[in-house]
C-alpha cells in the first residue's frame, strides 16, 4: 500500500496518489496529468478512480484529461452536479482500491459538495483523511468562495455548515489519523495555513483554532474575521471545473508556436494579445519588449497571472527563457489561461538581434536607494500585502498592494520621481512592468526589497508587529 503526497509549491497544492495491489487512484490532480500516469505505469498499476474533494477555485483540476487518458472513473461527493459524466458518491459510500478502502464523508462548508475521504488500510485500520479544503494544517477552508458562483450560498450559511461538518464528521475520528489537506501556506483558500503539509488529527485537535470548543456563532465570527476578497479568477476556475474544459494537450499545441521577431510583432498587433514575459526580474529589467508584462516563473506565477490578468480568455504571447515555453503554457493552464497563441523563438535575444525597440527598468541596490530616496520629498511605494506592510514598513512609505495596483494608479506621480519595492523584488518588478506599460517612466525599483531595506543601518522602519492574518 502506498499513499504519496505530490506537492506543487508555486500554487501551494497537494494531490495524492494511492496504490494498492495493482490499482491506483488520484485525488485532486493538477491539469497536467502525465506525471500521474507515469507513476502508475512505474508501479504496474491501473488508475481506477479520480477522486475530487470539491469544485476547486484556485486551479483547474486534471480530472477530465486523466479520465479520458486512463479510463478511470471520476468521483465527486454528494450534491455535486458536474456537466460531464461522473459518479456522485453517497455519504459513507466505500470504494475499493486493491486491498485499500476509501470511505466518503460528506463535509459541506467550504463548498456544499466538499467531501473528505477516509483511508482504511488492508488491515481495516483507519490510516488518514484526505480533507480537500475542509481542514488544513492550522486552518480550515474559507466559506466565501461558493457564493461567487451560487448567490444564495452566503458565507454565514457555509460557515455554519462547516462548523457542523467538523464537529460531526472530523472531530469524532481517532487522533492517530494523518491529515492530508489540499493546500499549504501561500494558498488563498485559507488565511492561517501552516508551512507543514501533513499532521496528525490529534495535534490539529489540540492546536487548530477552528477545532477548539466554541459555539457555532463564535466559530462563524472567528472564521469570517480577516477575510479579504478572493482573487478574481477563482469563480472562473470553479466554472471550468464544473462545466469542463479543453484538453491540456490542445492548449499546449496551440501555445507552442515558435515565432520569429517579425511574426511575433505581427501577431501582437493583429490579435491584441498580451505580451507576457516570464523571465526572472533581474533579466527582465535589463531589457524587454515595450508594453510587455513581467510575471516570473520563479515564484507564485499562476497566482499573480490570475490576480492581474482579468480576462481568463485573454490571448497571450510569451517571452520566456529558451526551454521554458511549455512550462509557461502549462502553468498558465493550471489556472485556466488556455489561450497562449505562440512564443518568441529564441527568447528576448531574438528580439534584440532583430534590432527591435526595447525598454528597461531602473533598479537600484538598497545602498543607493536609501542614499537618494530616504527623505520626505520623494515618494516610496510598498506593493506588499497590507498585512505585511502593517507588520513593519519603511517610515513614510505608502502601501499600494500589487493585487490592487489598478485601483492605485492615480497615486503614482507622473511629474516627480518615485521608488517602488516589495519584500524581495519579485512583485515590485511585476508592478514596474505594469507601470511602464501604462506610461510611467520616472521611477526606480529596489533590488532586494524590504527584506534588505530593514537590515540596513540607515533605514528608518516601524517596529515589527505580528500580523493577525496572512491575507
UniProtKB/TrEMBL annotation:
Residues 269-360, 374-462 form the Rhodanese domain. SMART domains: Lactamase_B, RHOD. PROSITE patterns: RHODANESE_3. It holds the Pfam family Lactamase_B. It comes from the Bacteria. Signal peptide: none annotated. The keyword Transport does not apply. Keywords: Metal-binding. SUPFAM superfamilies: Metallo-hydrolase/oxidoreductase, Rhodanese/Cell cycle control phosphatase. InterPro entries: Metallo-B-lactamas, Mito_Persulfide_Diox, POD-like_MBL-fold, Rhodanese-like_dom, Rhodanese-like_dom_sf, RibonucZ/Hydroxyglut_hydro. GO terms for molecular function: metal ion binding; sulfur dioxygenase activity. GO terms for biological process: glutathione metabolic process; hydrogen sulfide metabolic process. The keyword Hydrolase does not apply. PANTHER family: PERSULFIDE DIOXYGENASE ETHE1 (PTHR43084), PERSULFIDE DIOXYGENASE ETHE1, MITOCHONDRIAL (PTHR43084:SF1). This is MBL fold metallo-hydrolase. It comes from Psychroflexus maritimus.
